């Protein structure tokens, strides 16, 4: 019951954050006008939002698994809903949250104007910023410690996590093609070779994050998780 309440609480918090953003946040940046016609008032252009939605989906599926599936450490047979939950966690929710929190706060520490211009502070509350960029990893790490997860095959896991990053960058390039505006101010100060390098390094980083997540999970649960691959 405690896990179900935890999962439902995260879903409620995340849904409230999305609702609040869509209802009350108007981005006070000139470049934002180029994106408002896109889904979610243009928020769909940010990888942070992709990560946030993936995490919300994960906790919603986890709540369903709490009710209809199983969270045993070594079940005789892994239910389909748990297999789906584990794939979402291992290939999307965990590596994406690790990437978002690490990269966002690293760039913020170097020069926040490249990632979150100071003029955004007037319209973008700090609690929402931390939900999107800080607790997204905190909640996921807590989940790692309270729920066992079975990883898919390494080949399948790396394929899913890198495809997720690749699809995002294809979307970002499409947005630039349609609006002649880069999603992130960072890309304004880069040239094409460094932009391509940044995108490729991010795709590679996603695979590294997946590998780190796999090792962390193994360290937390040792030999207690089932050996059967979910897919």
Automatic annotation (TrEMBL):
Origin superkingdom: Eukaryota
InterPro entries per UniProt: ADTRP_AIG1
Membrane topology qualifier: Multi-pass membrane protein
Stretches that traverse the bilayer: 45-67, 87-107, 127-146, 158-177, 192-212
Catalytic reaction annotation: 12-(9Z-hexadecenoyloxy)-octadecanoate + H2O = 12-hydroxyoctadecanoate + (9Z)-hexadecenoate + H(+); 9-(9Z-hexadecenoyloxy)-octadecanoate + H2O = (9Z)-hexadecenoate + 9-hydroxy-octadecanoate + H(+); 9-(9Z-octadecenoyloxy)-octadecanoate + H2O = 9-hydroxy-octadecanoate + (9Z)-octadecenoate + H(+); 13-octadecanoyloxy-octadecanoate + H2O = 13-hydroxy-octadecanoate + octadecanoate + H(+)
Pfam families named among the record's database cross-references: Far-17a_AIG1
Subcellular localization, as worded in the UniProt entry: Endomembrane system
Keywords carried by this UniProt record: Membrane, Transmembrane, Transmembrane helix
GO cellular-component term (any): endomembrane system
Protein family per UniProt: Belongs to the AIG1 family.
Protein name per Swiss-Prot or TrEMBL: Androgen-induced gene 1 protein
Organism of derivation: Eumeta variegata (Bagworm moth)
Gene that this sequence comes from: Aig1
